[in-house]
Amino acid sequence: MLTIVVICAVAVLVLGLGPVVLGRDAQIAQRVILRFVFTIAIPLCVIFGIGLYAAEWLLDIQTPVWPALIGGLVIAAGWLTTAVFNELARNRDKEERLRDHHKALYAEIQDTLSAYYGEGEATPHAQKIIDKMSADPKFVPFIPKENRDRVFTALVADIHVLPRQTINPIVAYYSVISSIAALANDMRGERFQTLEQDRRIAMYRNYIQMRERAYSYGRNTLKVIDAYAEGGPKAAQAKLDILSTPVMGQTGPVQGKV
Fold first, then answer.
1. What is the pLDDT of residues 142-158, one digit of tens each?
2. Which of 19, 177, 215, 239 places its Cα 20 to 30 Å from the Cα of 188?
3. 114 and 52 together in one domain
4. CA gyration radius for the chain?
C-alpha cells in the first residue's frame, strides 16, 4: 500500500509540476516546492505520524488511513501546483514592471545626458559664459529651469521593484539632479542678481561641475541598466564592479537599449 501511495504522489507531482521544474522557471518552482516540503509537509507528517502511531499501538485503534493519505497527497499536490503557478505569475508581473521602470528611467536619463552634453559644446559654452562674466561685472547668465526627474518622481513610490544593482546608481544620479535643480532655482532668484560677480562666478562654476558629475553618474547608470537587461543581476553587478573606479577620458552621449 505504501508503494501505491508513493507512486500516486510522484505521478501527480510529475504531471502537475514536471513541465515547470524542467523549464526556465525551474528555480522558482523548486523554491516553492522546498518551502512546502520543509514548512508544511514534513511537520505535518511528523505530527500525524506520531498521532497515528499512538492511536494504533497505544490505544489499539485500528483505522484505515491509507485512503485518506492518498487523498491528502493528491490534494496537497494540487495545492502545490497552484502555488507554483501563482508564484510564477507574480514573478513575471514583477519582471515586466521592472523592465517598464528601467525603460522609462533610461529614456529620461538619456535625454538629460544629451542636453548636458550638447553635441560636445557644453564645456566650451560654459567656459565662454565664465569668461564673459569675468570681463563684464554686470553680466548675469540666464540659468534654465532644471526639471529632469519627472519620471523618477512618478516611479519613486514603486522603486522597490528595481533590483539592488540598478537602484543604487539610479538614486545616486537623481540625488545630484535634485541638487542641481535646487541650485538652479537659487541662481534664478533675485538674490543671485545682487551678489558680487566673484560669488556669481563661483556659483556658476559649481553649477557646471554638478552637471558634469550628473553626466558621469548618468553614463554609468545607463551602462548598469544595459548590463542588467542583457545578463541579469550578475552582469549588472560585474558592470558595477568595473565602474567602481572612475575611468577618465570618456566623452559623448551613451546609446543603448533596454
1. 999 999 999 999 999 98
2. 215
3. no
4. 31
Domain boundary pick from 92, 119, 140: 92
Q: Is the pLDDT of residue 114 over 60?
A: yes
- The tally of domains found in the chain comes to 2
For 165-219, what is each residue's pLDDT tens digit?
Answer: 999 999 999 999 999 999 999 999 999 999 999 999 999 999 999 999 999 999 9
User: Per the domain annotation, does 222 fall within a domain?
Assistant: yes
Please check whether residue 248 lies inside any domain of the structure.
no
Rounded to whole angstroms, the Cα distance separating 181 from 87 reads 42
CA 17/CA 42 separation, integer angstroms: 19
CA distance 110 to 104: 10
User: What is the DSSP annotation of 39-105?
Assistant: IIIHHHHHHHHHHHHIIIIIS------HHHHHHHHHHHHHHHHHHHHHHHHHHHHHHHHHHHHHHHH
> Structural domain of residue 209, as residue ranges?
97-243
Does the pLDDT of residue 106 top 80, yes or no? yes
- Mean pLDDT for the chain overall: 79
- Which of 92, 114, 135 terminates a domain? The answer is 92
